[in-house]
Amino acid sequence: MSSSSRLFARGFASAAAPRVHLSPAVRRLVEQFNVAIGNLRGSGGKGRILKGDVLQYLNGAKSTTAASTQPPAPAAARSQPAPSVSGSTTSAIQRPTQPRFEDLPLSNIRKIIASRLSESKRTIPHLYVSIECPMDKLLSLRKKLKEEHGVTASVNDFIVKAAAVALTKVPQANVSYINGQVTPNATADISVAVATEGGLITPIVKNANTKSIQAISAEIRDLATRAKANKLKPQEFQGGSFTISNLGMFGIDTFSAVINPPQCCILAVSRSEKRITSGSPAVDFWNSTDEILPASADSPLQLPPPTFETVMTVTLSSDRRGVDDVTAAKFLNSFKQIMAEPMILMS
After folding, report:
1. pTM of the shown model
2. How many CB atoms within 10 Å of residue 329?
């Protein structure tokens, strides 16, 4: 065939079979499973082929490969004409079964969470600042309270009060951003993130800086229990001036939390871990020794034992419009000092 004839043939084929417009999702399915467009019947507007049309075709397609696996017929039988097959033919390629998925409807609380967090990430310039807090004195105090006074308190209870006290020392961090204005909060009301079946909810410990560790512990247990039973009153989880999200019990090293507007700050609390201290005798030994002589049977090399400390990493997410870098740093330093000297929390 001459080049002009081939061009004419291609032009005729294009005119006879106009291009079908497919969405990217539909086109990926068609290409992935090698589906002939002509075998599909569109259910969309103006006969548009939808993703569901392709899935329906794949689920309903019947393989014809079984016939090809039959043993060859005898020569006499092969000489006879093959019987005609009525109906449309399908592809000889085995179509894998498309996995079925179920769309789960959102609960009302998840709809609210999705709306608020999307608004937060879309409209709030998040600033992230992290610091490591020494925990040994606090853990010792917690153990002493339990053994000598029968007071059972979690580490999170101490964190809640420490954050509230730090807010009183750095009141510039205890603010909300409302209608383009920075609004100071008169009290340190700490929202505590609690996981429920419907999603996270943040019941509030009001005036947390004025309450004892024991009172905070009892209040958080009560709020968490009623939150999981969906029995909180609106005023018990709406509002608050500062939020704490603690994933330390899950072994998380570090993470950043999303601000809960109109609040300007949320503190992400990670796990505590033991580390060799920078002032450990073993570390000082290696840092101060230029040359290590090999050990022998007569004079074995003796290393000083290392010392350890327990530290916890926290990350503050703050709304840069209301809490700037310096204020965020001041708050975290104040929080660290309180965690390092937890007897402040007992007053």
Report:
1. 0.67
2. 14
